[in-house]
Amino acid sequence: MSGGTSAAPPRLGVVADDYTGALDVGSVLRERGHQVELRFGPPPPDARPAADVVVVALKTRTAPREDAVGQSLGAATWLLDRGAVQLYLKYAATFENPANIGPVLDALSDLAGADGRHPVLVCPAVPSYGRTVYQGHLFVGDRLVSEAPEGRHPLTPKDDPRLARLLAAATHRRVGLVPWEVVVEGAAATAAALDELAGHGVGYAVADVLCDADLDTLGAAARGHRLVSGAAGLAGALLGRAGAGPPAAAPDEDLAGAVVAGSCSVQTQEQLRRFEAVRPVFRFVPTMVAAGRDVAGEALAFARTHLPTGPVGIAATAPPEVVRREQAALGVEVAAQLVESTLAAVAEGLVGAGVRRLVVAGGETSGAVVARLGIARVSIEQAVAPGVAWVHASEALPRWVLLKSGPLGDPDLLLRALLADRRAQR
Ligand SMILES: Nc1ncnc2c1ncn2[C@@H]1O[C@H](COP(=O)(O)OP(=O)(O)OP(=O)(O)O)[C@@H](O)[C@H]1O
Ligand SMILES: O=C(O)[C@@H](O)C(=O)CO
Q1: Homologous superfamily of 257-424 in CATH?
Q2: Counting ligands in written order, which one lies closest to the CA of residue 262?
Q3: For the chain, N or C: smaller number of CB within 10 Å?
């Protein structure tokens, strides 16, 4: 838990479809001064949240649809049963895997009693991350998501930037648009447009967003909505600012540190390249594991050799042509599963070797690692970049973990997290 305790029911209950995304939204809300409780995996029935904002991190983005729906419904029911005033479905700012977002939104709409008075907002935009939506098209920087490197995810590649079309293919509800020309007029005009869409039987409203002020408008228009959906941006705007918040802690730099990376995003590739210029990194690909090599054992031997002199890296991170070759050889799912299980085993071994500061790059990878380490609940501590923060697990080792979302963080993030003087941290 971050920021003290609260006996009142949570104002916002967030169901996040991956672990790094959960930390992203959690740290954005914490930076805005809210008390945030972050839980990994389906919450136990007897757990009692004690914060303004409760984030439940699931690994449902690429799960089979029925599992994604079942787990999301379970988490949302748990949050509503504990009095959550508003529900938020958190997905990626690049709208990863709409095939799961659609049915999960349908199930949560039914559960939350989305009453037909207004459609549920669909807002992946986070302008500060370069994700904007115009005329219902998702952009990354100055490119449509379908033309940007960020759209070439190993598991969920995107060839269509039109959000309404993507979502409509995965739901029976009608999907509409709140165009920027309306959003820019303010919250009252936006709320009226949502009412009008409801009158036309629209269940989901994609919203154009070009800047943070547009998010604030949507946040104000959706304040009374029982269910809202989007990335970290709209969640921050929904609750507004609550003050400076409590001070955040950071791990001691003397603690042994390591990074395990399964993210193949362009950002992670560059962050790792810069880290590798300073510290050793063991790299592998899943065909090595499939060939029967004890890759986890080799990686741990490598780590034990180098940990005495500083942090080390273990990575499957590779450029798109290598990932394509690996996937062609093994199949997409087997390749991913071999990477994730190897990195989870490596993480466990690193903890055994004394690592107490562990950076994990990639959402799927984080899900696998956190589950293997048995981390169920953490407090969100010092941010190292927007949406990327250290978390502290008081009930599990390695105590300090930093889950880095694939596309987030500046090129020096790994250096700053594991090597730089703490005063240099943001
Ligand atoms: N060399 C490789 N060959 C094939 N698949 C790989 C390789 N390296 C990683 N992968 C797989 O690619 C996927 C990367 O997804 P992951 O969610 O971990 O990173 P990301 O998408 O960059 O991060 P985020 O979800 O935070 O945006 C994982 O399932 C991983 O197992
Ligand atoms: O919005 C994002 O890109 C991240 O929070 C995320 O979901 C990473 O998996």
Answers
A1: Four-carbon acid sugar kinase, nucleotide binding domain (3.40.980.20)
A2: 1
A3: C
Which residues of the chain form CATH 3.40.980.20?
A: 257-424
Identify the three-state secondary structure at position 425: coil
In testing the pocket of ligand 2, which one of 18, 95, 266 has its CB within 8 Å of the most ligand atoms? Answer: 18
Alpha-carbon gap, residue 296 to 345, rounded angstroms: 6
pLDDT for 117 equals 79
Residue 114: pLDDT band with limits 50, 70, 90: low
pLDDT of residue 5: 47
Pocket flag, ligand 1, residue 267 (CB < 6 Å)? no
Cβ–Cβ under 8 Å, residues 40 and 55:
no
**What digits encode the pLDDT tens for the residues 173-232?**
999 999 999 999 999 999 999 999 999 999 999 999 999 999 999 999 999 999 999 999
Mutate which of 153, 266, 268 for ligand 1? The one with the most ligand atoms within 8 Å of its CB, which is: 153
**pLDDT classification of 420: cutoffs 50, 70, 90:** confident
Show the beta-strand stretches assigned E in 72-226. 86-90, 120-123, 131-134, 137-140, 143-144, 174-178, 202-207
**Cα 122 to ligand 1 centroid, rounded to whole Å:** 25
- pLDDT for the residue numbered 158: 81
Q: If you average pLDDT over every residue of the chain, what do you get?
A: 94
CB 130 within 8 A of CB 141: yes
- For tokens 């994604």, the residue is 68
Ligand 1 in reach of 336 Cβ (< 6 A): yes
Q: Which residue has the higher pLDDT, 254 or 8?
A: 254
Burial 353-390 (b: 16+ CB within 10 A, else e): eebbbbbbbbbbbbbbbbbbbebbbbbbbbbbbbbbbb
Please tell me the class of the 12-239 domain.
Answer: alpha beta
